[in-house]
Design goal:
- Keywords: Cytoplasm, Hydrolase, Lipid degradation, Lipid metabolism, Phosphoprotein, Transducer.
- This is Phosphoinositide phospholipase C.
- GO terms for molecular function: phosphatidylinositol-4,5-bisphosphate phospholipase C activity.
- The protein is of the alpha+beta class.
- It has six domains: 82 residues, no CATH class; 233 residues, Roll (PH-domain like), CATH 2.30.29.30; 145 residues, EF-hand (Recoverin, domain 1), CATH 1.10.238.10; 304 residues, Phosphatidylinositol (PI) phosphodiesterase (TIM Barrel, Alpha-Beta Barrel), CATH 3.20.20; 130 residues, Immunoglobulin-like, CATH 2.60.40; 222 residues, no CATH class.
- Helices cover 31% and strands 18% of the residues.
- The protein has 32 helices and 38 strands.
- Strands 19-18-17-20-21-24-25-26-27-16-28 form an eleven-stranded mixed beta sheet. Strands 5, 6, 7, 8, 9, 10, 11, 12 and 13 form a nine-stranded antiparallel beta sheet that branches. It has a four-stranded antiparallel beta sheet with strand order 32-29-36-35, with no helix packed on it.
- Helix 16 links the parallel strand 20 and strand 21.
- The chain is globular.
- The termini are far apart.
């Protein structure tokens, strides 16, 4: 008996992730709770051998709510059994390892099969790891778990007992390896030859059948690269193969009928799936790899084989001395000034560091030393070949390489046409010309040869993707891009609470730097808590506390200097005045002398119903505070006091909940001079919504305690939203937040509250949301609220958990591809630089939109972890949604936060983008990035197919139509009834067009997130005949691009033509008939609005009172909102159709499939074709009538 003694290399303690909602002040920056692992449905941990449902060894769980608690320790008494065979100690030969795959022995040549149950394929011994493309489960069917132990104790390949009875076949144990340098799996794919070599070695893939069965097979490429084979198989060896020359195309993702009709569609990862289309009938071989990386290797290698056949390797090897090598050689020669053909390791490290600043010096130096050791060469110098080898290994990002070869026509560089297709099809750029592509090449290509020839190398392509042009944040929103002429109450305003404090609320120091920092960050509302000071000079601090004091004058000097550094739009000074009359006069003098004409002194006009706009108030400072009645002519008068500090002090000293509810209202004397400085922001006390609607003036502003505002949002969400359409509302943190923690601003933004005051000195999740939200609109401090919160008649509830009436939901598709240069968290308790990162994607918005997803953990790789995981979120109110990326470390006790980035949904750029991560305090982490892909579709276009071939298309019988609610007021109900038919017609027009597009995308072998230009580009190779002449051409007929056959078509192309014709037909029908539908909807809307002013009187005449009257009013608002929404959807559908037609036309020109043979010139496309296409009528006048109607 062989006895082995092993020491656990490291005890990893994994903590339970905190909740997304209501995090504590010390943990606000962390992500939401991790989804439980599939291995244990109770707590998400791996099952212990003692069946205690805990991790083997020691399992610490942290309970996180509002404060950190002591860990509860569970000590496992079970035995951790490690089979010696796992370490290659059984004396048997180990099988060939290729990545994570194991080659089955030759004796396992029979047909094997496993049934997928709850997403799991095979028994526990054969389960996939955390990165598996097929979700695992702890429940396995009896049939799927039939295994037998072989003589050496290993388990055989799982199979159904009803199909395979022979128990002699066995599955070899996988060999474990230990390395003290680079790990075997660290070898990167940096050239096509790496892919071909890996395919020749072979990989274990899963073969998918439409009958919901999955077959484990070992696929490999013949040494002569003529055939693709798989084993084991019941078929003869000559039949279990595909000739490379018969392969028509390679599709990525689950985009064949076999995948769509497979019962495990939802459990199969999109990133690990691919299909080989072969034969004259375009049959498909549908496969799933164990990882996205393996799938990319096979897709890239097969596409090379299709392009170059058996000459692939020769072409690759002969091309290695081309542009990239020449460029690196020139750089090396420049560094080798002496001509010795060697440079020192130090110089080589600096040269690599210069080319890739994110790499660590120690990692580069270690790589050079590894090469020297492998060559058994001593010395401290580096040759050119060694330098190039290290650069290839450390600076080639496989995920970018796989993307690069997808668009490279010759697989070694992108020419101007290749880049043009990438920019338009993937990055969402419109009407890209070859000149624009050439500008990109000249800007980012590092080699002189590439610049001269107009070629973009892999390194140039990487430079472009790392540039600001490929930042995830839309550059259009880096400048003021919203309508700034709306009333002030229609905007969210970036606001600060107790701006002078830089630590806690009770003992913290006060400093003018708080104002400087807030104003530089775009804050447009700062707070000044003013009290009598020594030497007749007012001071600022929090009264009734131990906070330090700063002079009022110094703060006003700072405000004067920095008020309009970050934004030209109005700044609000929230004065909380507690001074005597004498020092109030000093305050007035400082304000008038220092700020001068910047103070807004013009009173509101009596005829105005709303506040002025930010545009009208540019460069002005608005003083918010108490104001004497207009009838007061004396030098001073009495007003009520605002004292948040007293409220906090009283709450800290009073223990009784009943006593806390009543804070006595005090009064004080206010000078008229100081009162006259308050014009548009008069502070008043809030009573209730009915009284406010009846008597409050638009220039009067109410401040809400966080708790009271939350109660209003919960109990009166509709009234709160309507209140904020006209009046400004300021929400300040609860006095109990003495640690300066922050409330969730989204809780009040969703109610329309404009001024949500934040503690700028406290970083974390809530401050991330605030900073991220106000990045948009040029970081000017003002963000236009959603239209549904501004329109006079609109139906919206802040707490809705369903779709919003009149707003079209969007589907957000995010793929987390990789990360770069993740640092060790600052609060780490573990030694060394090892990081086990994982990523959270969080959606913040209305309750219906709040969601989160997390990636798997990538163990021991913070330099370049590959995640390759895709997520999908439905966004019901896009105008108020935010996306937050959070990177955490899964490997130690302490603070796991690495970095985050928060961005408004409306600012996302589609395509392949880099996300610059920020630290806890908001600083950009140098060279620390996430690489992602973003796509946004509407709900129909982005839906998932149902099982058994039922796509997302809905028939008219099952279609959901917008319906009008009954008010029980006959005259009004009769008007709304006239909208029923045009509403159905509008829905049919949109749904028919969208369904036709989905069907066409499916036939093209693309997912729903693809655009029509990508569809045409994917079709191009299939449209070519045996003699390389096109079987179909696009021809503009009546300004619409139709497909015209150029001869006899095979069956699959006939289906394509039928689906495409339906796209054109439904698109044309929508353009020609949508105007009549929305004109009729508009007429009904106008007729209904005539009843709006007298709706209550009509309801009373019909006998409606109390709740029935309220219900009738709500139903009226609902109906108007539905009609406005359908009008907007029709307008959007028209724009979508016009964009689709242009995409088709330009793609046809790019592929030279336009009748007449025209192609895109360097200036775009030929002017005649462009003019013909743009002649499609838009009927802009009719559309314009529908905007902001009856607001």
């Amino acid at each position: 008996m062989l006895i082995g003694v092993f020491s656990l290399p490291e005890l990893r303690v994994r903590k339970q992730q905190p909740r997304l909602q209501e995090p504590s002040s010390t943990e606000q920056h962390r992500a939401a709770p991790a989804a439980p692992s599939s291995t244990d449905p109770q707590n998400g941990t791996a099952a212990c051998s003692c069946h205690c449902s805990q991790e083997p060894g020691v399992h610490l769980r942290y309970k996180r709510a509002r404060q950190r608690a002591s860990p509860r320790v569970h000590v496992c008494t079970g035995v951790l059994q490690v089979p010696m065979a796992e370490f290659g100690l059984d004396g048997s030969p180990s099988p060939l390892n290729v990545g994570d795959a194991t080659v089955p022995g030759e004796e396992a040549a029979g047909e094997t099969q496993c049934e997928v149950v709850n997403g799991e394929c095979g028994p526990a011994e054969d389960r996939l790891g955390p990165g598996s493309p097929i979700t695992t489960s702890c429940e396995t069917s009896v049939e799927a778990s039939n295994t037998s132990l072989c003589s050496d104790g290993s388990a055989e390949i799982p199979r159904r007992s009803s199909i395979i009875k022979d128990g002699s076949r066995q599955r070899k144990e996988r060999k474990k390896t230990v390395s003290f340098s680079s790990m075997p799996t660290e070898k990167k794919i940096s050239r096509a030859s790496d892919c071909i070599s890996a395919m020749v070695d072979g990989s274990e893939l899963k073969k998918i059948r439409s009958n919901s069965r999955i077959y484990h097979r070992y696929f490999l490429l013949d040494a002569d690269m003529q055939s693709l084979r798989w084993e084991p198989s019941k078929k003869e060896s000559e039949k279990a193969k595909i000739d490379v020359k018969s392969i028509k195309e390679v599709r990525t993702g689950k985009n064949t009928d076999t995948f769509r009709t497979n019962g495990t569609y939802d459990q199969i990862s999109e990133d690990c799936a691919f299909s080989i289309i072969f034969g004259e009938n375009y049959e498909s071989l549908d496969l799933v790899a164990n990882s996205a990386d393996v799938a990319n290797i096979w897709v890239t290698g097969l596409r090379y084989l299709i392009s170059y056949g058996k000459h692939t390797l020769n072409m690759i090897e002969s091309s290695q001395n081309n542009m990239r090598l020449s460029w690196l050689g020139e750089l090396f020669n420049e560094a080798d000034g002496s001509g010795s053909k060697q440079i020192s390791i130090c110089a080589a490290v600096q040269l690599v560091k210069k080319l890739n600043p994110g790499l660590k010096n120690i990692k580069i130096e270690l790589k050079f030393k590894e090469i020297h050791k492998a060559k058994d060469r001593a010395g401290s110098n580096v040759t050119k070949e060694e330098f190039i080898e290290v650069f290839h290994d450390l600076c080639t990002r496989p995920e970018i390489y796989f993307l690069f070869v997808q668009f490279s026509s010759n697989k070694e560089f992108l020419d101007t046409k290749d880049l043009m297709i990438f920019l338009e099809a993937e990055q969402g750029m419109a009407q890209v010309s070859e000149d624009i592509s050439l500008e990109v090449i000249q800007k980012y290509e590092p080699s002189k040869e590439g610049q001269l020839k107009g070629w973009l190398s892999l390194d140039g392509f990487t430079n472009y993707l790392l540039s600001p042009e490929c930042h995830i944040f839309d550059p259009e929103h880096k400048k003021v891009c919203q309508d700034m002429k709306q009333p002030l109450s229609h905007y969210y305003i970036n606001s600060s609470h107790n701006t002078y404090l830089i630590e806690d609320q009770f003992r913290g120091p006060s400093d003018v730097t708080g104002y400087i920092r807030a104003l530089k960050m775009g804050c447009r509302s700062v707070e000044l808590d003013v009290w009598d000071g020594p030497d007749n000079e007012p001071v600022i601090y929090t009264g009734h506390t131990m906070t330090s004091q700063i002079s009022f004058r110094s703060v006003i000097d700072v405000v004067n200097k920095y008020a309009f550094v970050a934004s030209e739009f109005p700044l609000i000074l929230c004065l909380e005045n507690h001074c005597s009359l004498k020092q109030q006069r000093v305050m007035f003098q400082h304000l008038r002398k220092i700020l001068g004409d910047k103070i807004q002194l013009d009173p509101p006009k009596p005829e105005d119903c709303y506040l002025p706009s930010p545009f009208q108030l540019k460069g002005k400072i608005l003083v918010k505070g108490k104001k004497l009645n207009s009838e007061c002519s004396a030098a001073e008068g009495e007003v009520t006091d605002e004292d948040e500090g007293a409220e906090m002090s009283q709450r800290m000293s009073i223990g009784s909940t009943e006593q806390q509810r009543t804070v006595p209202t005090k009064k004080f004397l206010l000078t008229k001079d100081l009162s006259d400085l308050v014009t548009l922001c008069k502070s008043v006390e809030f009573k209730d919504f009915p009284k406010s609607f009846q008597s409050q003036k638009q220039w009067e502003l109410c401040s809400f305690n966080e708790v009271f505002a939350g109660r209003c949002a919960s109990d009166f969400p509709g009234d709160f939203v309507n209140y904020n359409k006209k009046f400004l509302a300021r929400v300040y943190p609860s006095p109990m937040r003495i640690d300066s923690s922050n409330m969730n601003p989204q809780d009040f933004w969703k109610c329309g509250c404009q001024i949500v005051a934040m503690n700028y000195q406290t970083p974390g999740l809530m401050m991330d949301l605030n900073i991220g939200w106000f990045r948009q609109n040029g970081n000017c401090g003002y963000v236009l609220r959603p239209a549904i919160m501004r329109e006079q008649v609109s139906y919206f509830s802040a707490n809705t958990k369903d779709s919003v009436p009149g707003v079209s939901p969007q589907l957000l598709h995010i793929k987390i591809i990789s990360g770069q240069n993740f640092p060790k968290p600052k609060g780490s308790g573990a030694k060394g630089d090892i990081v086990d990162p994982y990523v959270y994607v969080e959606i913040h918005g209305i309750p219906a939109d709040c969601a989160e997803q997390r990636t798997k953990t990538v163990n021991q790789n913070g330099d370049n972890p590959l995640f390759d995981e895709s997520f999908e979120f439905q966004i019901n109110l896009p105008e108020l949604a935010m996306v937050r990326f959070v990177v955490l470390d899964d490997d130690y006790i302490g603070d796991e936060f690495i970095g985050q980035y928060t961005i408004p949904f409306e600012c996302l750029q589609p395509g392949f983008r880099h996300v610059p991560l920020q630290s806890l305090t908001g600083e950009v982490l140098p060279h620390t990035l996430l690489f992602v892909h973003v796509a946004i579709t509407n709900r129909r276009g982005g839906g998932k197919p149902h099982k058994r071939g039922l796509s997302v298309r809905k028939g008219k019988r099952s279609r959901e139509y917008a319906s009008m609610r009954v008010l029980l007021i006959k005259a009004v109900d009769d008007v709304f009834k006239t909208a029923s038919l045009p509403l159905r017609e509008a829905t049919d027009l949109r749904e028919n067009m969208q369904n036709a597009i989905v069907s066409f995308k499916e036939l093209c072998g693309l997912s729903a997130v693809a655009n029509l230009k990508q569809c045409i580009l994917a079709l191009c190779p299939r449209l070519m005949g045996p003699d390389n002449s096109p079987l179909l051409l696009f021809n503009l007929i009546d300004q619409y691009p139709y497909l015209e056959p150029q001869g006899l078509l095979p069956d699959f192309l006939k289906k394509v033509v039928t689906a495409y014709d339906l796209v054109i037909q439904t698109s044309r029908t929508l353009l020609e008939n949508s105007e009549a539908a929305y004109e009729r909807i508009l007429q009904t809307q106008r007729a209904a609005m005539e009843f709006h002013e007298n709706l209550s009187e009509l309801a009373v005449k019909e006998g409606l009172k109390g709740r029935k009257l309220h219900k009738a009013t709500e139903s009226f608002t609902w109906n108007i909102t539905i009609m406005k929404g359908q009008v907007e959807l029709l307008k959007h559908a028209r724009s979508e159709v016009l964009e689709n037609l242009k995409q088709i036309h330009y793609a046809a020109l790019t592929c030279k499939l336009s009748k007449g043979g025209q192609s895109i010139s360097s200036s775009g496309s030929d002017s005649k074709s462009r003019a013909s296409l743009e002649a499609i009528p838009e009927k802009a006048t009719a559309e314009d009538e529908l905007t902001d109607e009856d607001n």
